[in-house]
Amino acid sequence: MDNFILWSVSLEEEKQMVSFFATNVQAQRINQGTEEMIAEMIDDLGASEVSFEQWSIERFVTDYLVDRPYSDNWRDIWAETCEIKVQLSKPISLNVKDTDLIRTFASDESWNGEPLQLPVKCVVVADFYSPESIAIAKQILTLIEQFGENVSLFDELRAQVPYVSERIVTQFLKEYREQRRLNVKTLCELSIRQRTGLPQQLVISVGVFDEPFYAKQNNLAEWLSDLIHELGGTTTWDEKTDIELENLKSNTPI
User: Fold this and answer.
1) Residue pLDDT tens, the chain, 254 long
2) Domains and CATH numbers, the chain
3) Parallel, antiparallel, or unpaired: how do β-strands 4-12 and 17-24 relate?
4) What's the maximum distance between 2 C-alpha atoms anywhere in the chain?
5) CA atoms of 243 and 205, how far apart (whole Å)
6) Of 228, 190, 222, whose CA–CA distance to 206 is shortest?
7) How far from 80 is each of 42, 106, 118, 158, 230, CA to CA, in Å?
8) pTM (2 decimals)?
9) Nearest to 157, CA basis, from 136, 176, 180
């Protein structure tokens, strides 16, 4: 059976860099990765016999691939995922859609059977559908980054997006302050990154948390997801594919 789902492939042609997410399907996990694993994954993406110089692996959990209906077990919602960045030796071409889910049998021989160790980074992957909406989202999230140190920014935040539900903004900021208070020893801090090869996608790190955070209903990541939706984005693969299907239907001549 396949071990991982590869998704959200970003190719930076100028830097000769390819990055993608790999989410666990079975008990197999990724540790440091091996040349054989990376080569097989890139081959599964559609580029055979690719030479590369080095790679990096960043581990987190995300609910982007969550199945419906939602499970009561947080581990069924927050799936362990690695962002794998590969520095290529020469340019390649890929024919992969940003909604493609590629299953791979690749395995990591450097993994010794250890389970996921908590605490672990929590990431919300957000897709937007216009340059304007992602620009506004980046602006608002940057303000929220500063909010932890300056609560007076609330009025400025509300003025920037008066159409966003005040309840969602208030609850999100309340939870953000609470998690920063509770997680002094780990980290609760927003970090926002726009992917170069997928400029309509933001990777938002919420912080590093232990099990109680993920098991809690209406946690900080869920309020962030609600805020993203208010700003015109989506935060799951199902939502993105639904929107793209609707767009395809609306553009199909009758």
Assistant:
1) 799 999 999 999 889 999 999 999 988 999 999 999 999 999 999 998 889 989 999 999 999 999 876 788 999 999 999 999 999 999 888 999 999 999 999 999 999 999 999 999 999 999 999 999 999 999 888 888 776 556 666 777 777 778 888 888 888 888 888 887 776 555 667 899 999 999 999 999 999 999 999 998 889 999 999 999 999 999 999 999 999 888 887 775 54
2) 4-104 (3.30.70), 120-245 (no CATH)
3) antiparallel
4) 59
5) 24
6) 190
7) 20, 16, 11, 34, 27
8) 0.92
9) 136
Q: Residue type for 111, please?
A: W
